[in-house]
Design a protein that fits this description.
- By secondary structure, the chain is an alpha+beta fold.
- A five-stranded mixed sheet has the order 2-1-3-12-6. The protein has a three-stranded antiparallel sheet with strand order 9-8-10.
- Strand 1, helix 2 and strand 2 form a beta-alpha-beta unit.
- The radius of gyration is 21 Å and the shape is globular.
């Protein structure tokens, strides 16, 4: 994978300030029926289907079959790969990307760069977000990072200061307890319970010089790290600063519709920066975003830039040239860019970004401003997760729930997480 993405790269390659890249002059006409599969909320599905229709209207003979699959997306995709019936184009994300590449599921894209997939104006370090062993295996949809979303109205009404980039984890816990009390609402708390969110745990680990996995594919944290993480959220739970176990159990990772913030049960949520677009469309509460809590004085950066998700081509795809044509369209077409906006993250193409910036509403523009704001506050991109690690998030959520419900002690839960994580690898 790439090294750290510097401030200059982000401002020039990710925020469209380096000029306008040329869009494809023509699209290849292909006669092929292609299956395209992704996960996401209704807003993402609507946008994606509209882009598929645009492509079919512009490319004679093209036929795209779109499929959205949320529940059991990755197990279903893995089963299809084993049965050699996988879709031609499928969506991956950083936690699953390396796993599927290492299993031989995806096709290297280097032969399609810079034509027909025009990546002019996109810095190499951004493309390397979807690289492994020196090859490009996916085209990133957009750039994002981690984001702490919060309901601005409840903070204003209670007078409790909202979290910001200077808020530590200890500050956050105290403030969430204060907010729960100040709000005085039935079944309403300051924070979600992120004890089972592997992505939040990774930020917390990196602030302490550790990580989920090492560069050589081993587990990158110890039992003491897991115990401290579980203890932090146990303390929040006992003090009333975050939602209780029964509500947290119904909030798997970062599924928007099941977030306590969206359900009106919490004032804050730990998620990914691009998700504020879908989250705002799902609630009337006015939302804003900031960085995750920091590790305190002297702590290392926890956050990093990441591809929100990416398109990859099935290794056994029978029409890879046709798929490459669609990926070029998705990345660079002006009409497609306007439809997609920033729902999947800040577009990588400078031309696409320059085109859409004037059309963005305040919430959408906030994602671009945020990516710019954190440019000098992020650390290097982590090494690719090892094969087998794609299920770690599910394992962590299950173990965290046992601790939250009290069926396992903090120490037992930490030991179980280590054992289960090692078993995956």
């Amino acid at each position: 994978m790439s090294a750290a993405i510097g401030r200059r790269s982000v401002l020039a390659g990710a925020l469209g300030l380096a000029g306008t890249a040329a869009l494809p002059a023509a699209l290849r006409a292909e006669s092929a029926r292609l299956r395209v599969v992704w996960w996401g909320n209704d807003d993402r599905t609507r946008r994606t289907l509209e882009v598929l229709k645009l492509y079919q209207a512009k490319v004679p003979g093209a036929e795209l079959v779109g499929e959205v699959s949320n529940a059991e997306y990755f197990p279903k995709l893995a089963t299809q790969l084993v049965g050699r019936s996988a879709p031609d184009i499928f969506q991956l994300e950083p936690g699953s990307f390396a796993d599927f590449v290492q299993r031989g599921a995806t096709l290297p894209l280097d032969g399609f760069l810079p034509q027909p997939i025009d990546t002019s104006g996109i810095s190499r370090d951004l493309l390397d977000l979807c690289a492994l062993d020196g090859k490009i295996w996916g085209i990133p949809h957009g750039l994002n990072s981690f984001g702490l979303m919060y309901d601005t109205a409840v903070f204003k009404a209670t007078g409790v200061p909202p979290p910001d980039d200077k808020t530590s984890w200890d500050d956050y816990a105290d403030r969430m307890v204060e907010l729960t009390k100040a709000a005085g609402r039935d079944q309403y708390w300051g924070s979600c319970d992120a004890s089972g969110y592997s992505f939040a745990f990774q930020v917390w680990l990196r602030q302490r010089g550790a990580d989920l996995f090492t560069a050589d594919g081993a587990l990158g944290f110890g039992q003491e790290h897991a115990a401290e993480w579980f203890a932090y959220w146990d303390g929040m739970r006992r003090r009333g600063g975050c939602v209780p176990a029964d509500i947290a159990a119904l909030s798997p990772d970062s599924t928007i519709t099941q977030m306590p913030l969206i359900q009106g049960k919490a004032a804050t949520s730990l998620a990914f920066s691009n998700q504020i677009v879908g989250m705002q469309s799902a609630t009337t509460a006015p939302l804003a975003l900031t960085m995750y809590p920091n590790g305190g004085p002297g702590a290392k950066p926890g956050q990093f830039y990441r591809p929100a998700s990416c398109w990859s081509i099935y290794a056994r795809c029978k029409a890879p040239e046709a798929v490459a044509g669609f990926l070029a369209f998705f990345l660079n077409d002006p009409e497609a860019a306007k439809v997609l906006g920033v729902e999947r993250g800040v577009p990588l193409s400078p031309a696409a970004r320059d085109l859409i910036l004037p059309t963005l509403d305040p919430t959408q523009r906030a994602t671009v401003d945020y990516v710019n704001f954190i440019a000098d506050k992020v650390g290097p991109y982590p090494p690719p997760p090892p094969k087998g690690s794609q299920q770690f998030g599910r394992v962590m959520k299950r173990v965290a729930d046992t601790v939250a419900f009290g069926t396992a002690s903090i120490s037992d839960g930490a030991a179980q997480l280590i054992a289960d994580a090692r078993a995956l690898l």
